Structure formats: C-alpha cells, structure tokens
C-alpha cells in the first residue's frame, strides 16, 4: 500500500512551522504521530503535496500544571497522557479517554493534537476535553488565538483550524472542589475499534450539594461531538441522585442524532447514549464527592 | 527525490536513501532486508509490523522512515544475543506460542516492552499490552502462556 508522493518538512521550531504552513497553505498538512494521516493517505483519502512534521518541535511536547491549568503540548502522546500524574490526578476522565484510544502501539505514536485535529466524531479525547471545557491554542504566522473546544469542530474531518495554523497546546482548567467527571466508550472490542457511542459527563456541586455546573457530551451520534442541552438543563440546580441521573439520561437520548450503520442501529445507539450518560454521571458524582 | 538518512537499528548505524513517502517498515524489509518485521494490514490495525522505537512498541507501517531518524529502533533481529535467544523468544518456542509465525515478531516485541516495564504482569495486563497485535491462528492462549512463562524467567 503506497503512500502518494509529497514533500516532507521537519521544522525544529514553531516559528519555522508557521513559515512553512503560511507558504503552502491548504497544500500542506501537519503530521505528528501519523496514526490518522498516514492511514488516510494510504487509502488515498488525502494527498497533501506537503507534509509538515511537528514532531521535532520540543516546545510542543511539554506537560505542565500552571496557574490552575493543566497545559498539554499538542505533540504529547496519548500513551504519555495515561502515565501523566498531573492528568490522572486533576482531570481523570481525560486519562480514561486516553486509555480507551486505539491500541498500545497506536497510543505510543498518536498525540492529543492529532486526535483533535483529525476531528473524527467517534474520537476518544474530545468528549472528556469538552466536559472539562478545554481551550485550544492555535498558532500561525499571524500570531496565536485561543478557541473553546466547543467551537472547534465543524464537521467530520474539519475544524476551526485554518490551513496556515496548527494546534500548539490544549489547556484544561483544573476542576474546582466539588467537581467530578466520567468518561465511558462502548465499542465492539476493547482495542483497535471505532467507538459505537462514547459519553463524558462533568458536574460541579456547590456547598449545599446542588449541581451548579453540568456538561454532558455525546460522541458518535452526530457529525461532531454534541453537548446534551436537555440533559444538562435537568441536572442544573438539582441535588444529584439516581432518579435525577435517569431523567438526565432519558433527556440525553433526545439530544442526539444517531445514524444506523454496520456498527449498530440508530435505536441501539440512542439507548446506549442513555446508559452511558447515567453511568458517567455516577462516576462524576463519586469523584465530586471525593473532591469536596 | 530520495534523500540520504541515518537510521539506528539494533544498535547499528545504517545510511539509506529514502523517499519521503516510504514508511519505516518498507525500508526495513526492502532496503535493509530485515524481513523479521512483517507487513500485514499496513494501516496500523494488526501489529505485525511492530518495532520498538525509543523503548516503545509502535506500528512501523505508520512511521515515515524520515521520522525515524535519530530514534533508537529495535526489530526482532536485535533480540538475540551471543547468549542465544531472548527469554521471551525462548518462551514462545517452548510454550508453542508460535503457529504460522506471522504475528510472532510483533507479539514478542510488544511482550518484551511490557516485561521491561513490569516484570510480573497479570494475565489482564498481558492481554492489554498485546491488544494491538492480532493473531489469526493460536487463539491467543498459547501466546499469553508464553509471556507468563517468560515473565517468570525474566523476573528470576
């Protein structure tokens, strides 16, 4: 299986990467781990004339906890995310997302930036990152801009990232006391499959034990990952319990548009949205209680 | 346009002319004749092209050869020493973890990477570590038993 021909660039600095991407625009495509782009190029779904590797840029590989944020470089690998104490201890649902992605072999190459940039509606990292309300830092020759992850995905495979831009960093605000999040993915196998449905939930309890922030994110059941507004509305301002979570789960089923395909019927996926919403809310509540 | 690059494979330096669109597995097999690394799906699904890059097992069909410059690459050919086969290799032979052999190099490299980190893994940890390597003959049981046997040998 041959790759189409292309010119290969390996900038050593962010500045150099900006120059190359500005010069070639939509003829160029950034590559990091390659677990998505190389596959798409082999299948001839994509054939950029210029492939720009971001893997040699040291400043894109860091992980730090700073000013209440966990800041993850776009080229930080998914395997390293599972190992990272800062991620596990502060944003555990993101560790769960990382552990669910691909196989160990894929995780050793794949990066957080790549998983977002490829914008697959079944991807494992967007739901937990949306649940935590993450921000993406995009850079180009024109400077940098911050974009909320909720505004990042446009349609399958397309994002807010312009051809001359690249994802440089992902910033996740460390959740306050009383907050918790959960992530569950459902697939046909435990590794190397495409999710059938994946859900992440985040709740934050105030001092009287009432939910004052709720975010429920549904994957695989729309062209992009979806917020579940009806479910979130039911949760807000209420004290959490099983009955409330069941109501929210039922509401989440009306918040999605699953299609019937070889992975499952729309009806089945909708039912699983309910089950996973309830279960991720229970995980979130357990964690919220521990963090209080 | 081919370009001369330097690769470090099994602690040996190679200078090789590659085009940007050549993957590491193709350079290993067709230019360096290190055919122990197999090519199965070529899309990162089957794990038969597993090599260890900077201490971590990866699908070499997804790595561009040029991306491998400066990395420490280990293939199945690099496991045997003057003392003979690597303990994981020995265990696969003794416990009949090899049937047709096509997945074996990948299985052994994934298992070796696991045992380097965790000398006494549980069965679940072994199955998880090998979950990116597909076998179409043994049904996995003999492979798991081989890794368990090796872990006992390695931790001694």
Write the layout of secondary structure elements.
The complex is a heterodimer of chains A (292) and B (156).
Chain A: E1 7-9, H1 14-24, E2 28-31, H2 37-42, E3 50-53, E4 63-66, E5 69-73, H3 78-83, H4 85-90, H5 92-100, H6 104-107, H7 112-117, H8 126-131, E6 135-140, E7 143-148, E8 153-155, E9 158-159, E10 166-173, E11 179-186, E12 197-205, E13 211-219, E14 226-227, H9 229-235, H10 242-254, H11 266-290
Parallel strand pairs in A: 1-3, 2-3
Antiparallel strand pairs in A: 4-5, 5-10, 6-7, 6-10, 8-9, 11-12, 12-13, 13-14
Helix pairs in contact in A: 9-10, 10-11
Chain B: E1 3-9, E2 12-18, H1 24-31, E3 50-53, E4 56-59, E5 72-74, H2 87-94, H3 104-117, H4 123-129, H5 141-155
Parallel strand pairs in B: 1-5
Antiparallel strand pairs in B: 1-2, 3-4, 3-5
Helix pairs in contact in B: 2-5, 3-5
Structural summary, described in words:
The complex is a heterodimer of chains A (292) and B (156). Chain A has 292 residues and is of the alpha+beta class. In chain A, 34% of the residues lie in helices and 25% in strands. Chain A is built from eleven helices and 14 strands. In chain A, the strands form four sheets. In chain A, strands 4-5-10-6-7 form a five-stranded antiparallel sheet. The longest helix of chain A is centred in the C-terminal third of the chain and has 25 residues, at 266-290. Chain A starts with 6 loop residues before the first strand and ends with a helix. The model of chain A has no long low-confidence stretch (mean pLDDT 96). In chain B, helix 2 crosses helix 5. The radius of gyration of chain B is 15 Å and the shape is globular. The N and C termini of chain B lie far apart (51 Å). The relative contact order of chain B is 0.15. The mean pLDDT of chain B is 95. Chain A binds chain B through residues 1-8, 10, 31, 33-35, 38-39, 42-43, 51, 53, 55, 79, 102-106, 108-109, 190-192, and chain B through 19-23, 42-45, 47, 50, 53, 56-59, 61-64, 66-67, 110, 128-129, 131-134.
